[in-house]
Structures are given as structure tokens and as C-alpha cells.
């Protein structure tokens, strides 16, 4: 299938990744400096593998060692500014890296003393805590962008100057030793739940995906999607949807997903007649959906499980139906658009044979099934990922083409460590924001304010929460966005009686919507770069394509059975069936086509019918089904006339 990949796309890919995926903008090193990075990154991955297999350190020590590796590598790999050297590490970054590592290892070295004098920090404790927070914020700025560090700084200022704020947000204020002690020397701030999840579950799943990629999993996913959907109407677009959905099970980044699958799917879409901006938008929407696809879910699923106090597998299972509805909505629109334009699939001779593909590389699916088996069997996510990695290494030797040689294995360990840096820095920094909320009680005050503004209306509260999530998502990575919104925005939904699982899933969905929504639509812009299309036009098209999928969160707030809350088999099947039909009508309304083009009034009727089917209730379902039947026969009659 290599012939399907234009050479000029490969040349531009590195630039596209670096432009839109900030976590990939690290230095390209050589010589002893590269050897140092490889050695430290391998040591980091092996440390996490060892602790996952043979037992974690004490919670605070595990988190401190994890963050020490992260900060050390971040300062060595990421330049301070665009003018800083990109091919060598300057002396001052070595100093910052060593200092940052010391500030976290200080907790390990002096652990017993810190426990003994809990709440009574010494001057040295305060100094180390101040340096640790400052260096963490700088590392986060380098690996991500300034938005999250700025929010953390505002949080710290608010903790100190709380008495000067308006009465609704005012508190008595806290002195610097108290703030640093809360934020850095305990488990309420930097070393709280977010970094705990990063140091255990998240790292192991990132490492699992990285090692699996070294077996050739990425190309196998593309070929598998081509074999399954390549010949159907508008085949390449469906290949993009299918391959991105599968890739999303092991990838935690929208932009990385676009660049992995989009280099194959976007040229294929253009080759059969899709316009460049539509091809880029399809890939962006499909890849962004990967962040709501279990088991990784942009690393947010693990944090959601901790916040809810439920087993991770419960969150992963609850996410299955919403993810399927999202992808069903995208697939319907892709199909209708292809039908409207008369676009055919790819010829048989250009496609791999499914059976031959499964015979030669089908064993690469075994680790994914193994992960699911271990999770369902009651293993912790960390243990499941650990055994998944061992399974990947074992099954890779089934075929010479997929075999994990020592260089490939080392590359997987290194890329796994590198891939964790952005998430870990974000988790550490967002811990400061969470710590601020617990110290000052701001979260509950904002929830009360949202409810007051909305007048207690659930729909208005949902819309305000949606706007908050998209706004915050414009500058925050998925994990950080979810933690902030679940701390600040989700309590308003909980106060109005929304099921916790539905509330947290709601804020997750709209947090990732920012990857598609201009002006900061990074996934859409990456797709536009590969497609050679106008970025803004691609972003707007992506929003239109995702519109049907993003109505779904409102539905499972209204009908929490879709996220397995109080679900009974019969009612659950009924809810899924009506939701799928509703999603079909939504796609029809968005594209404006079924058998023939839909008039404006019919699109409005179809949209109302879709909402009727998505909203639980006998009368609303009956109305939606009536609209479907009427539209089918009406369109069929028009098609015959034309």
C-alpha cells in the first residue's frame, strides 16, 4: 500500500507535526547528548515497568521520582524559546534540569523528616517548594503553551490575595509558607491525584502504545481499515474514520492521530474527488474522536475513575456507547456526502486482502484483546498495561516483519518516556489549580454562580458548562482541561442532579471539542496542512461534521442509561437503538441529503425528529420514528421524479 502515499506529504509531515503538536517540538540531538537522553528515557520507562510489575513505591515517593524524570528530560529536550538551540543542550538547561530533579527528589531524600514535621515546613522546605513550583511551571510552558502556567499563577495569586476579591469569591487569604506547604509538600497540590494517575496508569498506557507502534501497528491499522471499508461508497473517508477510531484506542493525542493516519487517508480522499478542506476535516474529526475512545481516552479516563471513586473498567465501559454514537454520526455524514457527490470507493486491486492481512499481521490485535481481558478480569489498569506490554513483546516474534528487535524496543522505551512528558507536566501544574480549589473552596462558589446565572435551568447550565469547557480547551491539553473543568464546571451539573458519570463525560467531550473549533483548532489545522487546504475553512467544516456527534453529550445527560447508569438490558437496547436512529437523522440534517437534497424546512423537521429520538420518552421516540418514515417515503418519491 506504499503506492497510496504521495512522497511530498512525507516531506512536509515533520514540519506539520512540529507546528501543531507542541509536545513534538523537542530538540534533535546527536552524539553524547543523544546518548544521555536515550539512557535517561530508557531508565524512566524501565523504572515504571519495574514498579508496575513488582510493586509501587510509597505514593509520594513514586510521584516524586516520576516527576524528577519528567522535569529532567523536559528541560533537556525542549528549548526555552524559538531562538534557543534546537540541536544541542545549552549549559543553563543542564543546570535547570538538575535543579528541577533535585527539588522533587528532595521529597524522597527527606521523606521521613517531612512526615514528622507535617504542617510545619522549615525555611529549606519552603525554598525547595518555591523552586519546584517555578520550575514545574516553566517546564509546562515549554512542553505545552503559556495558558496552563498562567492559570496556575493566577490560582496562586488568588490563594494569597483572596481577601481583596469580590465578596462572592473572597476568602481570608493564606501566607506563602501555607500555600507552598499545601501545593508542594503534601498530596493536595502538585503531588495530588493528577500526578498520581500520570505516574501509574497513564505512563504505562502511553508506553504500551509506543511499544505497540514499533511492531508496525500503525500501518496494520491503516491496511485493516482499507480492507474493510476501502471499496464502499466514499471508501477513503470511511477508512479515515475507521482507522482513526482504532488508532484512538492506543493514542492519546488528536494531532498525533491526524499525522499518523492522515498522511495515508487524506491523499486517498482527495484522489477520489473529496475537496481538500473536507478531507482534512474528516480526518481531524475522526482523530479527535480517538480521545473519547476507550481504553486510553486522552489519559482522562484514569483521572475520571479516581474522581468518581469507581474502577477504571467502569469508566471505559461507560464510554463505549458515547464513542460509538460519535463515530456513527461521523460515518453517516461521510457516507451521505459521498453519495451526494457520487464518489465511489477504491478499486479492488489497490486494496489489501483482509484474510491475507489477518494471517500475516492479525496477531498484532492480540495485545489489545489482552488489555481488555485483564481489565475485565479485575486487574488494575497499571497491571493490565504491564501485561499488555509483555504480551506485545511476545506476540511480535510470531512474524519476522513485526519482531521487536533490541533497537526497536529501545526506541519504544524512549518514545514512551518522551510521549509522557506533556501529560505529566500538565498533571503536575493542574494539581496547583485543584489545590487552589480545595484550599479556598472556589469550585463550589463557581458552581453556585453558574446555577444562579442559569436560573436553575439544566439546559442553560449545560450550555454554560459547554462554553466553559471549549474556552478552557482552547489552550489546555486534554488531561489538564478535563481536570480543570471537572473541578470548576462539573460541580454545577452535580448540584442539579446530573449523574456523576454523565457529568464528567460531558465535560470531557467538550474539552476535546477545542481541537476542532477555530480559532485554536489544532487537529483541524494539522489536517489542513496535510491536505493543502485553507486552515480556517477546514476548521469550520470539522465543526459541522462534529456537530451531530457533539449533540450526543446532551442526550446522555438526559438519558444517563447510555453511560450505563441504572441500565437494564431491555431499556438499554431500546436507548441505543433509538439513539442510533437519531444520530442517522442528525447526520442527514447536517449534510442536507438523503436520497436527494433536503429542503430547508425538511432539514429542520429531520433535526427535530433526531432530537425526539435521542431524548428518552415514548412520545418523543414515536415522533422521531414518524419523521424518519415520512422522510424516507417523501425522499424516495422525489428521487423517482428526478
Write the layout of secondary structure elements.
Elements: H1 7-20, H2 31-54, H3 59-77, H4 91-109, H5 111-116, H6 123-143, H7 147-160, H8 176-184, H9 193-214, H10 217-229, H11 235-248, H12 254-271, H13 276-289, H14 300-308, H15 312-341, H16 354-361, H17 366-376, H18 381-396, H19 406-440, H20 442-454, H21 458-473, H22 478-488, H23 490-495, H24 500-512, H25 522-531, H26 535-558, H27 569-591, H28 600-614, H29 618-641
Helix pairs in contact: 1-12, 1-25, 2-3, 2-9, 2-19, 3-4, 3-9, 3-19, 4-6, 6-7, 6-8, 6-19, 7-19, 9-14, 9-18, 9-19, 10-11, 10-16, 11-12, 11-13, 11-15, 12-13, 12-25, 13-15, 13-25, 13-26, 14-15, 15-26, 15-27, 17-18, 19-22, 20-21, 21-22, 21-24, 22-24, 24-26, 25-26, 26-27, 27-28, 27-29, ...
Structure description:
It is built from 29 helices and no strands. By secondary structure, the chain is an all-alpha fold. The radius of gyration is 25 Å and the shape is globular. The relative contact order is 0.11.
Amino acid at each position: 500500500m506504499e503506492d497510496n502515499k504521495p512522497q511530498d506529504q512525507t516531506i512536509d509531515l515533520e514540519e506539520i507535526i512540529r507546528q501543531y503538536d507542541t509536545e513534538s517540538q523537542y530538540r534533535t540531538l546527536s552524539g553524547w547528548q543523544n546518548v544521555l537522553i536515550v539512557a535517561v528515557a530508557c531508565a524512566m520507562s524501565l523504572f515504571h515497568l519495574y514498579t508496575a510489575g513488582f510493586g509501587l513505591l510509597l505514593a509520594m515517593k513514586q510521584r516524586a521520582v516520576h516527576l524528577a524524570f519528567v522535569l529532567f528530560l523536559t528541560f533537556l529536550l525542549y528549548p526555552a524559546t524559538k531562538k534557543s538551540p534546537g540541536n544541542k543542550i545549552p549549559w543553563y538547561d543542564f543546570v535547570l534540569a538538575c535543579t528541577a530533579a533535585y527539588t522533587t527528589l528532595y521529597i524522597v531524600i527527606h521523606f521521613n523528616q517531612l512526615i514528622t514535621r507535617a504542617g510545619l515546613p522549615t525555611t529549606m522546605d519552603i525554598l525547595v517548594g518555591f523552586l519546584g513550583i517555578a520550575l514545574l511551571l516553566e517546564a509546562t510552558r515549554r512542553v505545552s503553551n503559556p495558558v496552563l502556567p498562567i492559570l496556575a499563577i493566577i490560582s496562586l495569586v488568588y490563594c494569597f490575595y483572596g481577601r481583596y476579591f469580590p465578596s462572592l469569591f473572597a476568602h481570608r487569604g493564606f501566607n506563602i509558607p501555607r500555600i507552598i506547604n499545601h501545593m508542594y509538600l503534601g498530596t493536595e497540590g502538585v503531588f495530588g491525584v493528577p500526578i498520581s494517575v500520570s505516574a501509574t496508569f497513564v505512563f504505562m498506557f502511553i508506553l504500551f502504545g509506543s511499544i505497540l507502534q514499533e511492531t508496525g501497528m500503525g500501518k496494520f491499522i491503516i491496511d485493516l481499515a482499507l480492507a474493510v471499508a476501502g471499496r464502499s461508497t466514499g471508501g477513503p473517508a470511511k477508512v479515515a474514520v475507521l482507522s482513526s477510531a482504532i488508532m484512538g484506542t492506543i493514542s492519546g493525542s488528536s494531532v498525533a492521530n491526524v499525522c499518523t493516519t492522515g498522511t495515508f487517508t487524506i491523499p486517498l480522499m482527495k484522489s477520489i474527488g473529496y475537496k481538500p478542506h473536507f478531507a482534512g476535516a474528516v480526518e481531524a474529526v475522526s482523530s479527535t474522536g480517538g480521545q473519547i475512545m476507550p481504553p486510553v481516552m486522552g489519559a482522562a479516563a484514569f483521572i475520571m475513575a479516581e474522581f468518581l471513586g469507581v474502577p477504571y473498567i467502569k469508566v471505559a465501559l461507560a464510554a463505549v456507547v458515547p464513542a460509538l454514537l460519535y463515530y456513527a454520526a461521523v460515518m453517516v455524514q461521510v457516507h451521505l456526502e459521498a453519495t451526494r457527490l457520487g464518489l465511489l470507493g477504491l478499486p479492488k486491486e489497490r486494496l489489501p486482502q483482509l484474510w491475507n492481512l489477518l494471517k500475516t499481521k492479525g496477531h498484532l490485535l492480540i495485545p489489545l484483546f489482552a488489555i481488555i481481558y485483564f481489565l475485565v478480569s479485575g486487574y488494575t489498569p497499571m497491571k493490565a498495561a504491564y501485561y499488555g506490554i509483555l504480551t506485545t513483546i511476545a506476540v511480535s516474534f510470531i512474524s519476522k516483519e513485526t519482531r521487536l528487535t533490541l533497537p526497536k524496543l529501545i526506541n519504544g522505551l524512549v518514545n514512551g518516556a518522551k510521549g509522557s512528558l506533556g501529560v505529566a507536566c500538565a498533571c503536575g501544574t493542574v494539581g496547583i489549580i485543584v489545590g487552589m480549589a480545595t484550599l479556598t473552596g472556589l469550585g463550589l462558589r463557581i458552581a453556585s454562580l453558574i446555577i444562579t446565572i442559569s436560573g436553575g435551568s439544566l439546559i442553560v447550565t449545560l450550555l454554560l458548562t459547554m462554553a466553559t469547557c471549549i474556552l478552557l480547551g482552547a489552550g489546555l491539553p486534554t488531561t489538564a482541561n478535563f481536570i480543570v473543568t471537572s473541578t470548576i464546571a462539573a460541580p454545577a451539573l452535580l448540584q442539579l442532579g446530573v449523574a456523576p458519570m454523565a457529568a464528567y463525560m460531558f465535560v470531557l467531550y467538550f474539552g476535546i471539542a477545542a481541537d476542532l473549533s477555530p480559532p485554536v483548532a489544532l487537529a483541524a489545522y494539522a489536517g489542513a496542512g496535510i491536505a493543502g487546504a485553507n486552515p480556517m475553512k477546514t476548521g469550520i467544516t470539522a465543526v459541522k461534521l462534529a456537530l451531530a456527534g457533539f449533540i450526543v453529550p446532551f442526550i446522555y445527560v438526559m438519558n444517563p442509561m447510555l453511560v450505563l447508569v441504572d441500565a437494564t438490558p431491555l431499556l438499554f437496547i431500546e436507548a441505543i437503538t433509538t439513539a442510533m436512529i437519531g444520530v442517522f437523522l442528525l447526520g442527514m440534517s447536517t449534510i442536507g441529503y438523503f436520497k436527494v437534497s433536503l429542503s430547508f424546512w425538511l432539514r429542520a423537521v429531520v433535526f427535530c425528529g433526531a432530537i425526539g429520538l435521542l431524548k428518552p420518552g415514548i412520545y418523543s421516540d414515536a415522533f422521531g420514528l414518524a419523521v424518519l418514515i415520512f422522510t424516507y417515503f417523501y425522499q424516495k418519491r422525489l428521487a423517482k421524479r428526478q
